[in-house]
Amino acid sequence: MLAEERRQRVREIIDKTGKVTVDDIVTKFSVSAVTARSDLDVLAKRREVMRSHGGAVRQLNAVVDYPLRFKESIHFAEKLRIGQAAVQLIRPNQSIILDSGTTTVHIARRIKSSRIHPLTVITNALNVAYELAEAEGVTLIVVGGILRTASSSMVGPQSERMLQNLHADHLFLGVDALHPDVGYCTPDILEAQLNALMIRVANEVTVVADASKFGKRSLSLIGTLQCARRVITDDRVNPQMVDAVRAKGVEVVIV
Fold it and tell me: Where along the chain do its domains lie?
């Protein structure tokens, strides 16, 4: 079987079942794990599938609110690099906000291992709070409210009332979609409202978004591109999208 024919068959499996693993490809097509990964990398580069830990999944729809556990497996290495780059912007004695998401949790893990302290971290995300609960030198403020089970985050009027009385030096904002002509978006209306308030109470905003988020729109607008100083993304990002974002006066950091 030719490589391109095999990749088409792999794509058909993903379209039908939603995902495929490297082991699945090795077993079904009698190829090596190296070849299986190469096939998935080619399909991902074409934006026909999304690479996940140990395999690939169907391209995500930006208006669908996928569970946190599922999103954690998508673009893991890229999110790790983004988190590492974001932490380089944090200084001792600052107060920062970490939004909910699977990229911001990598920032939390890096904060814990880097021992940046003293530091005050404000978050509405249970996964972020869990990572920093015992971090040395970190004062943790967890915003309460209504639990969004899909993202393990707190939203709603209670969250907003608590947050509006706080101030942060830096907000690290995770988004589900980023479009140069629209701005930053998320599928959830209450999440978008809280994110917009986070922007207002922070001196500086950095958006952390892997390349798959670029050029997409979702249900709820968080804010225009200019509400953030910079976007940190990975090296799979479309160069034309980068140029469009930079044309709006927003710095783009590629890792």
Answer: 3-59, 71-254
Rounded Cα gap, residues 91 and 82, in angstroms: 17
> Residue 189 corresponds to which tokens in the numbers above?
């209306």
HEC readout, 115-174 = CCCCEEEEECEHHHHHHHCCCCCEEEEECCCEEECCCCEEECHHHHHHHCCCCEEEEEEE
Q: So what's the pLDDT on residue 214?
A: 95
| Cα distance between residue 30 and residue 23, in whole Å | 10
In this structure, what token pair is assigned to residue 77? 């290495």
At residue 104, the 3 state secondary structure works out as helix
In tens, the pLDDT along 123-171 reads 999 999 999 999 999 999 999 999 998 888 999 999 999 999 999 999 9
CATH 1.10.10.10, applies to 3-59: yes
pLDDT, tens digit (0-9, with 9 covering 90-100), for 29-50: 999 999 998 998 888 878 788 7
Q: Which are the contacts of 2, defined by CB distance < 8 A and separation ≥ 6? A: none
- Residues 6+ away with beta carbon under 8 Å from 216: 62, 176, 177, 178, 179, 185
Is residue 98 classed as helix, strand or coil in its secondary structure? strand
Question: Which top CATH class is 71-254?
Answer: alpha beta
Place of tokens 């090596």: 32
CA angle in degrees (0–180, nearest 5) for 76-21-150 = 50
